[in-house]
Specification:
Layout: H1 3-18, H2 22-27, E1 29-36, E2 44-45, H3 46-60, E3 61-74, E4 77-88, E5 93-104, E6 110-117, H4 119-127
Parallel strand pairs: 1-6
Antiparallel strand pairs: 1-2, 3-4, 4-5, 5-6
Length: about 130
């Protein structure tokens, strides 16, 4: 698996979050993929809950703009330092950041993601 392939998969993941495209987003994942987003919560089976995940984004945000600041690839995994800027439907601006670890399988699909970030800090910005 090449670094370019992994970077392409990661880019598609973030692009589909930005456009809040549920079908495109789930297409990045293996059928049995798991998401630990955020780490510390029980894992979600991506293909079972993808519409709910994107639906939550669509309900809250008018716009989301992810920036991948650093991508570190090793073997079939990538650690990505990212910042997300958003505008809520109520006009509030939010900025939050984190690190997501992507495990990519032989079919160039995301097998597992582990996202390290603080949802409470983002929610606090929305309520401020």
């Amino acid at each position: 698996m090449t670094t370019a392939t992994i970077e392409k998969v990661v880019a598609a993941y973030f692009a589909n979050i930005s456009t809040m495209n549920p079908e495109g987003w789930v297409e990045n994942f293996a059928e049995d993929a798991l998401s630990y987003d955020p780490v510390g919560e029980p894992p979600a089976k991506v293909h079972e809950g993808f519409r709910q995940f994107i639906g939550q984004l669509q309900a809250v945000f008018e716009k989301l703009e992810p920036t991948t600041e650093h991508i570190f690839v090793a073997g079939n995994e990538a650690a990505v330092k990212w910042t997300m800027r958003g505008l809520s439907k109520t006009g509030k601006s939010v900025t939050f950041e984190g690190i997501t670890i992507f495990e990519i399988n032989e079919a160039d699909k995301i097998q597992t993601i582990r996202a390290y970030w603080n949802p409470a800090a983002m929610v606090a910005q929305l309520r401020a």
